[in-house]
Sequence to fold (180 residues):
Amino acid sequence: MSEQSIKTIRAVEVSRIPSGEQIQIPADTPVIITQALGGSFTLLIPSQPGLYRLAGPDADAIGQEPTTEAAPAAVDGQVSEGAVWDVLKTCYDPEIPVNIVDLGLIYGCEVAAGEGGSAVRVQMTLTAPGCGMGPVIAREAEEKITGLPGVSQASVEVVWDPPWSPDRISAEGRQKLGMD
Fold:
């Protein structure tokens, strides 16, 4: 994506990276889109220090279309584990252009069948314990999982054991990061 300065169309709330602090930027604020992956945007705001994450549903604030992907159908009112892994691959750390699955941040995914649909439990970690974006990334993953047909509830828990290391990055992730 070419880095071009644009202006916000309306006031919008963004998350400061990596603290996760929420701030509101007013309409007509110059911003530069540095990354657009998984439906969210990483912005450089020249009038503010650092980088910011703009959630996909607010894409219109910067003149972009929110991305929507066709969700897989539920089978017998339940979601498949594969569908959960696929939707997790649409979640990105706003500073790293690799999805959270290929980055090795997902430690576990359990899908349990229930009467009203599947209950999904995911355990994930972060590249650094002090990263304030953890709750933001976990909430995005939870929202995307909950949006899958056949899911009645979802929880994403951030865990620290075992600690993350670059060894967890998939071959595809390593290639995207130029580590091969």
Observations:
- The chain has two domains: 5-62, 81-176.
